[in-house]
Design brief:
The complex is a heterodimer of chains A (400) and B (290). Chain A has twelve helices and 16 strands. Chain A is of the alpha/beta class. Chain A has two domains: 245 residues, Thiamin diphosphate (ThDP)-binding fold, Pyr/PP domains (Rossmann fold, 3-Layer(aba) Sandwich); 137 residues, 3-Layer(aba) Sandwich (Rossmann fold). The N and C termini of chain A lie far apart (61 Å). Chain B has 290 residues and is of the alpha/beta class. In chain B, strands 2-1-3-4-6-5-7-8 form an eight-stranded mixed sheet, sandwiched between helices. Classes of the chains: A alpha/beta (400), B alpha/beta (290).
Chain lengths: 400, 290
């Protein structure tokens, strides 16, 4: 039987990790992830979590130690944010290449510079090609649920890829919400014990892992990872169906809201997806045919589902919470644009950077702009809520 | 999981493709001979990766993985935690890295491992430069040595790894040399029994990088000890013990001038270095008597 708990996003992530019985935790504090590191150490100290807590000296070592522990044959965990994830970048690729299915909460925060403590998606987007599965959460319940699902997905023998469970710094990490938490036995039965499946360090049956690979086989090793991602799309649906059956909440890699007869839809990731739905509901009550599409699984990207859900929609706004500097648009935009393959007018909106709120009025302005946009006009992304004279702010002005 | 193509006498296959006269090969074989097969090794890229192998072939009969250049200690600490969580406290976790991966890019990770007290045996094979990438200088390259990034000779003194470890309060640390294998073996045995971090810092000759004839590896490293350019000592029970004290120190040039990397040194510079090295040796002797 599930009980309800009041948890903030970080506590929900810890609840998911602890109830999945991680045996080794290596953590390093960073705002806004720090309470994950603290809470895990509390649980280990109190004996509620039977695990070893490693107080490592950097995020680089946090992921390195987690990788070492999981290669030894146990479920291990860490969590990070922002520049901490950037510091892990090298080991992110090591973990995915060695096919070690670590599950890691990533509390989304802008990457310096300039320094920002607050939410955007630049940190995890910079890792989108690191060979990790990426799930984005809309609310605190999703953080808990998707953490449990991430273990099943990552550890599945047809997948064997690590997973980031991404959620918005402060908007979710420090937002207290009511969360349905199943009994430990139910979680045990769903997540199951950790079984190493590929290669691991067994002194009685030794194997040396991660040799130098020549051009003879390197491509094939990457091909195998590509196949892992392909399988992950199916496995996500299997795991999601089982999760729904057991716990009553169903997750989709991409989830439409009133998209069926919509003329205009906003595609989004993370906590702002709730706001978009709210605005869609309001606008629908005024008779406007609008909809929302939330992408939960960014890696692998649910290209077919996105195309199916947006079939017949004339105008699509893709809201990116990362700048996509130097590209034709933000990372979510590029994926959606490709998925739709010219079948809709797709426009990119960049906003919510460095903690700037994406409120209902912003969403309404996006819908208004999308409706008024002329297809033949400038295709450059629209930067939302930018101050009137952005080039007059700070020192850059003098040199541009 | 191994399919043994050729049988080797020890845990390391015969005919590993290290350079002729390689000191690392001697260190690696001897360390594994002492530790035995109940060992898990983690080693970064570098010359030691020649033992991990290529593609689906490996040169050792123990479990392990190749980590990244700067995370040998953190990786080993993680393995230890994982094995402990499985109830396996008997397997030795061996971190085996060169000087660059230890005193340069890996020093933070090593510092964390020692400070936390993680039970890992860390062996640093010190060939005093980045040999695998082509003899670039490291912070363990001795003063005066020419490398491809210190072509005129390194102008600063090397880091002192053992003293750094001692400053952390490590339970056991020792220097060793390929020229004194029984001493190395004894130290490995001792280190493997330490209930916490242990460090062995091994002087490892590299004919390719130091520019001397491959047949002279052992003789050269013996001369390093006989001139006090390398001192064999141990830190144990909060005390320093010198393991070998030559009756009379040989002149430093007996060691230096046998190597091409020091050929640019002037007599004055050698005299200065001799003074520095002997001074350090005397301070160690004094510390050992305390």
């Amino acid at each position: 039987m599930a009980e309800y708990m009041m948890l903030d996003g970080n506590a929900a992530a810890v609840q998911g990790m602890a109830m999945s019985r991680v045996k080794v935790v290596a953590a390093y504090p960073i705002t806004p992830q720090s309470s994950i590191a603290e809470r895990l150490s509390d649980l280990v100290a109190s004996g509620e979590l039977q695990a070893t807590y490693m107080r490592v000296e950097s995020e680089h070592s946090a992921l390195s130690a987690t990788l070492g522990a999981q290669l030894a044959g146990v479920r291990a965990g860490t969590a990070t944010s922002s520049v901490g994830l950037a510091l892990m970048h090298e080991i992110c690729n090591a973990a995915s290449g060695m096919r070690v299915p670590i599950v890691m909460p990533v509390v989304n925060r802008a990457l310096a510079s300039p320094w920002s403590l607050w939410c955007d998606h630049q940190d995890s987007m910079a890792e989108r090609d690191s060979g990790w599965l990426q799930l984005y959460c809309q609310n605190v319940q999703e953080i808990y649920d998707l953490t449990l699902m991430a273990y099943r997905l990552a550890e599945h023998e047809r997948v064997l890829l690590p997973a980031m469970v991404c959620f918005d710094g402060f908007f979710l990490s420090h937002s207290m919400q009511k969360v349905a938490v199943p009994a430990q036995a139910e979680v045990d039965s769903f997540v199951g014990p950790y079984t190493p499946k590929n290669v691991w360090l067994d002194p009685t049956d030794p194997v040396f892992i991660n040799d130098l690979i020549t051009m003879e086989e390197f491509t094939e090793m990457k091909y195998q990872m590509k196949e892992g991602f392909a399988s992950a799309a199916d496995v996500f649906n299997e795991v999601s169906a089982e999760f729904a059956e057991r716990f009553g909440r169903r997750y989709c890699a991409a989830e439409g809201y009133m998209t069926e007869d919509a003329e205009a839809v906003i595609v989004s990731l993370g906590s702002m997806s709730g706001t978009v739905r709210h605005v869609v509901r309001e606008m629908r009550s005024r008779g406007e045919k609008v909809g929302a599409l939330k992408v939960t699984c960014f890696r692998p990207f649910p290209q077919k589902e996105v195309a199916r859900l947006l079939a017949g929609v004339g105008r699509v706004a893709v809201f990116d919470r990362s700048a996509g500097l130097g590209a034709a648009g933000g990372p979510l935009f590029l994926e959606v644009k490709d998925a739709l393959d010219g079948k809709a007018f797709v426009k990119n909106y960049i906003g919510g950077l460095g903690g700037r709120d994406v409120g209902a009025s912003t969403v309404e302005r996006v819908f208004a702009d999308l409706r008024a946009a002329r297809e033949e006009d400038d295709r450059a992304p629209v930067w939302c809520d930018v101050k009137e004279h952005p080039m007059q702010i700070r020192q850059v002005l003098r040199f541009v | 999981m191994y399919n043994e193509k050729t049988l080797a006498k020890g845990l390391v296959s015969h005919g590993v493709n290290t350079c002729a006269g390689c000191g690392l090969e001697i260190v690696f074989r001897n360390v594994l001979a002492v530790l035995g097969e109940d060992t898990v090794v983690v080693a970064p890229p570098g010359c030691v990766a020649l033992f991990s192998g290529l593609d689906d072939v490996t040169n050792m009969k123990i479990a392990g993985y190749q980590c990244n250049l700067e995370n040998t200690a953190a990786s080993a600490a993680g393995i230890r935690a994982g094995l402990d969580a499985l109830g396996n406290t008997h397997t030795t976790v061996l971190a085996f890295a060169g000087d660059g991966a230890t005193v340069d890019i890996g020093i933070q990770s090593l510092s964390g491992m020692i400070e936390r007290g993680d039970r890992v045996l860390y062996v640093c094979y010190d060939n005093e430069a980045y040999m695998n990438t082509g003899i670039q200088g490291s912070s363990s390259t001795p003063q005066g040595a020419s490398t491809t990034t210190t072509p005129a000779g390194k102008s600063t003194a090397r880091k002192d790894l053992i003293q750094i470890a001692i400053a952390h309060g490590i339970p056991y640390a020792a220097s060793a040399s390929v020229a004194y294998l029984p001493d190395l073996q004894k130290k490995v045995k001792k280190a493997s029994r330490v209930q916490g971090p242990s460090l062995i810092h091994v002087h490892t000759p590299c004919p390719t990088g130091w520019l001397f004839p491959p047949a002279k590896s052992i003789e050269l490293c013996r001369n390093a000890v006989l001139t006090a350019a390398w001192v064999l000592y141990e830190w144990e029970n909060e005390k320093i013990a010198i393991n070998y004290t030559p009756e009379r120190l040989l002149p430093l040039e007996d060691y230096l001038l046998a190597q091409g990397r020091f050929k640019g040194l002037t007599q004055e510079e050698i005299a200065e270095m001799q003074q520095m090295i002997v001074g350090k040796y005397r301070r160690l002797l004094a510390a050992a008597e305390m």
